[in-house]
């Protein structure tokens, strides 16, 4: 299948036309309007510095059903001890910078370019991109960020400076999202770490079918420290 070359027009071909690797198109830009259209269509950007923007729609797709979240016995003990404190949308810029700086096994450099950082900070200012911050002794030690439209959350990246910090943030987020009516989280590409938390693969067709239903729901747009916690107040999330 061909890889489509995008122009300045805000347009994507159908995601089913992606090549076997999952690449759908190259080029274009990261304007908020284009990014939001991409997420509505199950497409995301992922590319390296000094390369053109590459747009993906992989098959299969990795998702985590919020009701299928796996929390190990050791993690339940950490959560009960309240070793970490978790907040939402309190340090988005710092979280994305930390995700950008963290060294990852098997990767050279980072896919979070200056352009990507600026674009997602713009989505955050608009109330669509959100961060989870994990604190220990008032120090930021872990976190993650992603994009939400409708009742869908698209995870982008996470970081951890202390063992189990990012896992604490992710588990806390999933529990809040489940109580707020989110049935699943897009994890994009499967790995063993996500699998240990309950993530699995589904076909692109199934993913797009579910996406079409859930993006019709109202977007929880704004600062999640107040909005998401208000929707889950009194739900016993710390148990």
What does this structure look like?
Helices cover 33% and strands 24% of the residues. The protein is α+β, with helices and mostly antiparallel strands and 239 residues long. The chain has a seven-stranded mixed beta sheet with strand order 6-7-8-9-10-5-11, sandwiched between helices. A four-stranded mixed beta sheet has the order 1-2-4-3, covered by helices on one side. Strand 9 (152-160), helix 5 and strand 10 (184-188) form a beta-alpha-beta unit. It is globular and about 55 Å long. The protein starts with a strand and ends in an 8-residue tail after the last helix. The model has no long low-confidence stretch (mean pLDDT 93).
Short description:
The protein is α+β, with helices and mostly antiparallel strands and 239 residues long. It contains eight helices and eleven strands.
Key attributes of the depicted protein:
239 residues, alpha+beta, seven-stranded mixed beta sheet, four-stranded mixed beta sheet, 11 strands, globular
């Amino acid at each position: 299948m061909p890889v489509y070359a995008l122009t300045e027009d805000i347009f994507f071909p159908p995601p089913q036309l992606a090549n076997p690797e999952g690449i759908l198109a190259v080029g274009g830009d990261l304007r908020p309007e284009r990014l939001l259209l991409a997420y509505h269509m199950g497409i995301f950007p992922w590319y390296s510095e000094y390369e053109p923007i590459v747009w993906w729609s992989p098959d299969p797709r990795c998702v985590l059903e919020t009701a299928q979240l796996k929390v190990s016995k050791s993690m339940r003990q950490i959560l009960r001890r309240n070793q970490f404190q978790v907040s939402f949308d309190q340090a988005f810029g710092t979280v994305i910078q930390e995700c950008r700086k963290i060294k990852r096994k098997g990767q050279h450099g980072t896919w979070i370019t200056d352009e990507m950082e600026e674009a997602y900070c713009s989505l955050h200012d608009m109330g669509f991109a959100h961060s989870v911050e994990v604190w220990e002794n008032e120090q930021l030690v872990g976190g993650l960020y992603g994009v939400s439209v409708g009742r869908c959350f698209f995870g982008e990246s996470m970081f951890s400076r202390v063992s189990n910090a990012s896992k604490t943030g992710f588990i806390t987020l999933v529990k809040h999202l489940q109580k707020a009516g989110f049935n699943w989280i897009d994890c994009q590409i499967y790995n063993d770490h996500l699998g240990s938390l309950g993530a699995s693969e589904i076909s692109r067709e199934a993913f797009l079918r579910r996406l079409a239903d859930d993006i019709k729901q109202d977007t929880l747009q704004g600062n999640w420290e107040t909005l998401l916690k208000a929707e889950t107040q009194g739900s016993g999330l710390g148990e």
